[in-house]
Design a protein that fits this description.
By secondary structure, the chain is an alpha/beta fold. It folds into two domains: 173 residues, Nucleotidyltransferase, domain 5 (2-Layer Sandwich), CATH 3.30.420; 69 residues, no CATH class. The chain is 47% helix and 11% strand. It contains ten helices and five strands; from the N terminus they run βααααββαβαβαααα. The protein has a five-stranded mixed beta sheet, with helices on both faces. Strand 4, helix 6 and strand 5 form a beta-alpha-beta unit. It is elongated and about 80 Å long. Pfam families: DNA_pol_B_exo2.
């Protein structure tokens, strides 16, 4: 049996993490690497062309840092904090989606998401364990889009942090070419390549799963009490990934799976 997997993650809910980020940003605040001398001058309200011309870039950026350190520290800290949703050491799982073979996707989440991550993780692990019979079943293949580079790694890290023992059949440390995983991104783009799921779907004629929401909006939806919509989005990604897997393995090349509305 094949298991298609997708997770949706959110930034750290530990206030100490955000406080540490704020402190680090304040102590090490610097101009963005993309900031040009000309843009810095505009931001600083400089209009004297000669002053701009004869001010070196380093000096201009130093002025920019001094001027905007207090104003932009919180903005930069919030940007960095949001990125903890990609870090299993500090981020948190909001939704786990699973589809067993041809069955409809199942999603595991809680409306009381802030302190229910462990319960969600346990429920998903129990469902995986219950689906497998070592005496009669072959070991399942786990299917996902960038599953080897993100989903499996994040699940493993959260299980370790929370002290929840996972089923042994989950190939947490699999490489993209191992037999017990099928990573649609790396199988399509190669080990060092990448392709977005919606772009892959477009190439294969599969309806895009991105229906008004994408990964960058997950936290905003969860924060605003719309986690059910995130779960539906997760289920859509699972359907799309499974359809891509079938096309890429020539299992169903003539009739791409249609996504549920």
């Amino acid at each position: 049996m094949d298991i298609t997997l997708d997770i949706e993650t959110i930034p750290s809910q530990n206030a100490d993490v955000l406080d540490a980020i704020r402190k680090s940003v304040a102590e090490n605040f610097k101009a963005p690497s993309t900031l040009t001398k000309e843009q810095a001058a505009i931001d600083l309200g400089m209009t004297d062309k000669d002053e701009i011309k004869f001010t070196g870039k380093d000096a201009m950026l130093a002025r920019w840092v001094e001027r905007f350190r207090g104003e932009k520290t919180e903005e930069v800290a919030q940007e960095q904090w949001r990125k903890t949703s990609f870090d299993g050491a500090t981020g948190q799982i909001a939704v786990i989606g699973l589809a067993f073979g041809d069955e409809e996707p199942e999603t595991f989440h809680s409306d009381d998401w802030a302190d229910k991550e462990a319960s969600v993780l346990r429920a998903a692990f129990e469902r995986i364990a219950d689906s497998f019979s070592p005496q009669s079943d072959r070991r399942p293949v786990f299917i996902g889009h960038y599953i080897t580079g993100f989903d499996l790694r994040f699940l493993f890290q959260r299980a370790v942090v929370l002290g929840i023992k996972p089923p042994s059949i989950i190939p947490f440390h699999a490489r993209p070419w191992d037999d017990h995983v099928f990573d649609t991104m790396t199988r399509w783009a190669g080990h060092n390549g990448s392709i977005r799921l919606d772009a892959l779907c477009q190439a294969l004629g599969i309806p895009s799963p991105k229906n008004g929401i994408d990964g960058s909006k997950v936290w905003d939806y969860v924060r605003d009490g719309r986690i059910a919509e995130v779960a539906a989005y997760c289920a859509g990604d699972i359907r799309a990934t499974r359809a891509a897997y079938r096309r890429m393995t020539f299992a169903n090349s003539a009739q791409p799976e249609l996504l549920a509305a």
